[in-house]
Backbone:
């Protein structure tokens, strides 16, 4: 039966989102009235006719009948940027199983946004007059103000750093801003970048870059006159590191601007440096703006407003920039599309690449993905013909890829070398350092929490049912996160009998000690979560390494991302296969990506590079293909494995994640869901497993459990999700349990 009432919101910019108004849907409009559509409604005491958006439907209302007004009309809703974003929200709420309100809060630029972290920069309005101003303050015994001015004499400072340095509170700084003596801003930095950056003429494309651009334009029909808003296939640009993907993006952005359209460029937060933004500013000047997670809600809103009004035409930013409300969006670029930061951890747990394709559909915009190591799901879509695949296979300037050697750590152990450095890596470090090159050592920490391996033979303790590694829990049990299988900790290796079987506990700090002993003359920098507290630490370390202030940089995955160090000639990947041990079907994919990206760091300058991959699994395809940067070889093996196991993208996977402070209640609830799945799916087509403890079984006193449901057809999973959602809504027993759905 069609529902008779619609919940309508009118001001989609405000917090009012939470308080929708109820309207009656006239019989003839019930067919068209769906969540996300826009409607004309009579509003207020004199029934002014305005536009609203439907966020939900219902059969009954608690309001007295005579108080409810009728909808005037249902309109398509796609005329405005907001209307199209509401449509996107409706799709997201359905696709990812969240409420419409939450989906709208994710996609719409709300005037007030809670929880955003601010980082502001303070500068003097008149730097030249600083000294005399400070003296004046000192004479008047305005010591705090004097200290602020003194601290800013050397240049603008981060607000919080300034508070510390000058021992003042934010209110004193704000007071000075009120007097016009200092300026507090974030966008200030951007303006400076724009002013200082000289606009540069476009790069002359290499032949292969030009070919790629032409192939993409042909696909999108941009070279001929067909400029309708037809559906266009998304394009995956696979280009090895340094091949000039950014140059291709820039060309296509220029096309969009020429058509009078706007473009969004998504870049993973970690690679979103001034360097990166500058490359777009140099080409497009002040038509470029950018977002980052440290903008406050208000600043973010201002950026969105500028986009909405056409003041800017190119928005560069992390995941959330995807929702920039451009009036005529022409192109969405997702750089490093394989990055995990494109998966949202918050409800709706959306995947930016997928949402980008949907937004492209709604807006009639083109979508371009780029990566040196594409995600298996995108590469699979090229194979199925849903995406067009194009590639750049050589580095700009004819630079060669590094020569790579693989060190088998099992034989190192047999030969009596128990160090974290293999003989070959040590030798190469000596010769590269002697030759004046820099060395990067990359410690793959992924998967090292909890995985149990044998140090002698490399054996990894796996689940007998699931082909994923078991994880050690503090209660001394080894547990499978997929099926819940449990077994006590092992005393010796079932493969070789060695007693050296344990969780791996090498950290960057230990590596630093070991390397320091082996190379006492070398200057070493370490970069990990401990040394990079605050964004400043991060860029300070990278800068000092780039400036040649150190010979060796040791770090976790954060050092393999997006930075160009022309003097690095040798990259060592310590324990390359650790990420293979993760209890996740994507562990091979991550391992390939980490290795290929790390290897790609070497030899980006004049001198050719080398790489050494240390591993316990020298024969694993993710390791051999990663070392050779041979994506095709990796993909062939990986997709065969996914098909065999019916893992995504060959099959769909729905994770039903429950959390509750009450473990027993959670377990009961999850068992009920499992049984309910059995009822709606008596033939077992949904292949449900669990409930099992989530990969982190308890967070802040919330217990977490998960049920996985697999099926080759995504629609089946969406249907199952809908039914489970209804089941949960109808049962009071779930009131104390928080359930989230995650599609993969
Ligand atoms: P990717 O994004 O694929 O890693 P980049 O776009 O960063 O590659 O290009 C690598 C380097 O080569 C950059 O310093 C870039 O400026 C330079 N480069 C690439 N193509 C050209 C070109 N056609 N003309 C001039 N410089 C180029
Ligand atoms: Zn062993
Ligand atoms: Zn298992």
Residues:
């Amino acid at each position: 039966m069609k529902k008779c009432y619609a919940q309508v919101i009118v001001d989609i910019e405000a917090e009012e989102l939470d308080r929708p108004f109820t309207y009656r849907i006239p019989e003839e409009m019930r067919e068209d009235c769906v969540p996300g559509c826009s409607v004309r409604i009579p509003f207020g005491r004199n029934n002014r006719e305005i536009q609203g958006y439907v966020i939900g439907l219902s059969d009954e209302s608690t309001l007295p009948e005579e108080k409810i007004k009728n909808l005037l009309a249902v309109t398509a809703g796609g005329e405005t940027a907001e209307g199209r974003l509401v449509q996107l929200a409706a799709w997201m709420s359905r696709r990812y199983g969240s409420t419409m309100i939450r989906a709208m809060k994710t996609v719409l630029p709300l005037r007030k946004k809670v929880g955003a972290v601010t980082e502001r920069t303070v500068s003097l309005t008149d730097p030249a007059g600083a000294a005399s101003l400070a003296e004046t303050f000192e004479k008047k015994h305005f010591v705090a103000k004097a200290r602020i001015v003194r601290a800013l004499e050397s240049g603008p400072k981060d607000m919080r750093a300034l508070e510390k340095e000058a021992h003042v509170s934010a209110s004193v700084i704000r007071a000075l801003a009120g007097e016009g003596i200092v300026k507090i801003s974030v966008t200030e930095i951007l303006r400076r970048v724009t002013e200082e950056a000289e606009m540069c003429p476009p790069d002359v494309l290499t032949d292969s870059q030009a070919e790629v651009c032409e192939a993409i334009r042909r696909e999108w029909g941009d070279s001929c006159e067909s400029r309708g808003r037809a559906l266009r296939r998304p394009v995956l640009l696979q280009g090895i590191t340094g091949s000039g993907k950014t140059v291709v993006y820039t060309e296509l952005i220029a096309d969009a601007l020429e058509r009078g359209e706007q473009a969004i460029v998504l870049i993973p937060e970690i690679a979103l440096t001034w360097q990166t933004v500058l490359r777009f500013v140099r080409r497009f000047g002040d038509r470029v703006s950018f977002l980052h997670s440290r903008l406050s809600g208000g600043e973010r809103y201002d950026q969105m407003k500028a986009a909405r009004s056409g003041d800017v035409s190119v928005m560069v930013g992390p995941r959330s920039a995807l929702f920039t409300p451009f009036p005529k969006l022409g192109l969405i670029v997702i750089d490093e599309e394989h990055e995990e930061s494109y998966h949202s951890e918050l409800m709706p747990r959306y995947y930016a690449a997928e949402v980008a394709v949907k937004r492209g559909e709604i807006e009639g915009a083109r979508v371009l993905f780029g990566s040196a190591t594409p995600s298996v799901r995108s590469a699979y879509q090229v194979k199925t013909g849903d995406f067009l695949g194009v590639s750049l296979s050589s580095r700009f300037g004819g630079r060669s890829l590094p020569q790579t050697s693989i060190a088998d750590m099992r034989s190192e152990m047999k030969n009596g070398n128990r160090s974290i450095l293999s003989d070959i890596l040590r030798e190469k470090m000596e010769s590269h350092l002697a030759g004046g090159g820099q060395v990067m050592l990359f410690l793959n920490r992924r998967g090292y929490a909890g995985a149990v391996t044998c140090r002698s033979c490399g054996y990894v303790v796996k689940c007998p049912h699931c082909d994923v590694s078991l994880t050690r829990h503090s209660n001394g049990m080894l547990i499978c996160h997929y099926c819940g299988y449990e077994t006590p900790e092992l005393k010796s290796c079932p493969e070789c009998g060695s007693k050296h079987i344990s969780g791996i506990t090498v950290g960057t700090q230990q590596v630093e000690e070991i390397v320091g002993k082996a190379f006492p003359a070398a200057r070493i920098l370490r970069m990990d979560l401990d040394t990079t507290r605050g964004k400043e630490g991060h860029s300070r370390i990278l800068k000092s390494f780039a400036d040649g202030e150190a010979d060796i940089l040791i770090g976790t995955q954060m050092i393999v991302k997006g930075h160009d160090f022309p003097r690095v000639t040798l990259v060592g990947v310590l324990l390359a296969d650790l990420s293979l041990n993760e209890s996740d079907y994507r562990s091979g994919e991550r391992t390939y990506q980490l290795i290929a990206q790390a290897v790609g760091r070497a030899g980006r300058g004049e001198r050719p590079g080398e790489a050494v991959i240390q591993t316990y699994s020298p024969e694993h395809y993710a390791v051999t293909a990663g070392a050779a940067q041979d994506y095709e070889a990796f993909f062939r093996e990986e997709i065969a494995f996914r098909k065999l196991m019916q893992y995504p993208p060959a099959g769909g996977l729905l994770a039903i994640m429950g959390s509750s402070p009450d473990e027993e209640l959670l377990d009961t609830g999850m068992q009920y869901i499992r049984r309910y799945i059995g009822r709606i799916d008596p033939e077992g087509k949904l292949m449900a497993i669990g409930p099992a403890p989530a990969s982190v079984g308890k967070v802040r006193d919330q217990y977490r459990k998960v049920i996985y449901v697999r099926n080759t057809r995504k629609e089946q999973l969406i249907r199952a999700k809908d039914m489970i959602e209804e089941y949960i809504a109808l049962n009071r027993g779930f009131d104390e349990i928080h359930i989230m759905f995650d599609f993969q």
